[in-house]
Design a protein that fits this description.
The protein has 142 residues and is an all-alpha fold. It has one domain: Hemerythrin-like (Four Helix Bundle (Hemerythrin (Met), subunit A), Up-down Bundle), CATH 1.20.120.50. It is 73% helix and 0% strand. It contains 5 helices and no strands. The model has no long low-confidence stretch (mean pLDDT 85).
Length: 142
């Protein structure tokens, strides 16, 4: 079931919020691709796009945090690194899997990670920035 953006997910910065919306779309695309594992090209392209965009987003978000002197900057950066490492690990395992039935089983694993990442990271970790972001320009870029 696709995840839909809600205004409660907003951290108060237009750039970060737009990134989060796009990441949400990519996560929903991965879920759709996981439902059809026989189409390996679509899944591999979608996972690659998600990983690339996640890296770009984290870089942008960290630059914004640096500019606003976010007090948990280093902790947040380390959290991003752990998320990317886990995404890379699960993506590699999925792309190495040749059996479509086994792949469906692995699909649950990556969807749990992605949903946890989105809901946990955005709604808990990123929300810690909201107060700092609200006193900054709404479209502050890194």
């Amino acid at each position: 079931m696709p995840i839909q953006w809600r205004k409660q997910m907003s951290v108060g910065n237009l750039i970060i919020d737009l990134d989060h919306r796009y990441l949400l779309c990519l996560i929903n695309m991965v879920e759709t691709a996981m439902l059809h594992p026989e189409d390996g090209v679509s899944l591999s392209e979608t996972l690659a796009q998600l990983a690339e965009y996640a890296r770009e987003h984290f870089d942008r978000e960290e630059r914004i945090q640096y500019r606003i002197r976010y007090q948990y900057y280093m902790e947040h950066k380390k959290h991003h690194q752990r998320l990317l490492a886990r995404l890379d690990e699960i993506s590699a395992a999925i792309l190495d899997e040749k059996d479509p039935e086994q792949l469906k089983g692995r699909g649950d694993e990556i969807m749990v990670l992605l949903r946890e990442w989105l809901l946990d990271h955005v709604l808990k970790e990123d929300m810690k920035m909201k107060k700092d972001l609200e006193i900054s320009p709404p479209n502050l870029m890194g």
